[in-house]
Specification:
With 188 residues, this protein is an alpha+beta fold. Strands 1-7-6-10-9-8-12 form a seven-stranded mixed β-barrel. A two-stranded antiparallel ribbon has the order 3-11. Helix 1 crosses helix 3 and helix 2 packs across helix 3. The longest helix has 11 residues.
Length: 188
């Protein structure tokens, strides 16, 4: 298993029911299910358009307990959109990391470990949609069609979704270890 490191630049929570937009916090507790009070908290969730293999509303494992984006990839998105910056809050992210520019390509089953011994398991790419683009558009009124252009700009750069594998306290300045799942599929 390959290893990498990154630093936490921001911790965020989406705790207002009317929006997915997050706000910054200095520390938090990762519990089984995510961050208590966050809109995506829960061990299970209801199937939606992202899980077409199940009838809508079916209770399934919540793969989206924590959302992580990288500072480097947000810079690439901003560049492609032709804007000054894209903030993690506008994408509904819970963590912003720096030092691991290929975050969105992190393979399922990879782990992110924190100094408190908390651990996350990568459940896959967070696919881009127009909602964050609509939020970005609010800050750049002079730019056209950001909502739809974000889907292309965010593809393979929108970050990852994770589940809490081991609870623990997380701080804004934590250095994290990334264990990259690079095992080939034994079924092939």
């Amino acid at each position: 298993m390959k290893k990498a490191q990154a630093s936490i630049q921001a911790l965020l929570i989406a705790d207002l029911p009317e929006t997915f937009v997050t706000r910054r916090i200095p520390k938090t507790l990762f519990e089984f299910g995510g961050i208590r009070g966050d809109r995506h908290f829960g061990i299970t969730s209801k199937a939606d358009s992202r899980q077409p293999m199940y009838p809508r509303g079916t209770e399934i494992l919540n793969r989206r307990q924590i959302t992580i984006v990288s500072e480097e990839e947000l810079g690439q998105i901003a560049e492609e959109l032709g804007v000054e910056k894209v903030l993690p809050e506008w994408l509904g992210a819970n963590l912003l990391v720096k030092g691991f520019p290929g975050l969105t390509q992190l393979t399922q089953g990879s782990r992110i470990l924190f100094p408190s011994v908390a651990g996350l398991i990568c459940m896959g790419e967070n696919m881009p949609c127009t909602l964050p683009g609509e939020e970005i558009q609010k800050y750049y009124e002079g730019h056209e069609k950001i909502a739809t252009r974000f889907v292309k700009a965010g593809f393979k750069r929108r970050g990852i979704v994770c589940a809490v594998e081991r609870p623990g306290i997380i701080h804004e300045s934590d250095e994290v270890q990334i264990l990259i799942n690079d095992y080939s599929n034994p079924m092939q």
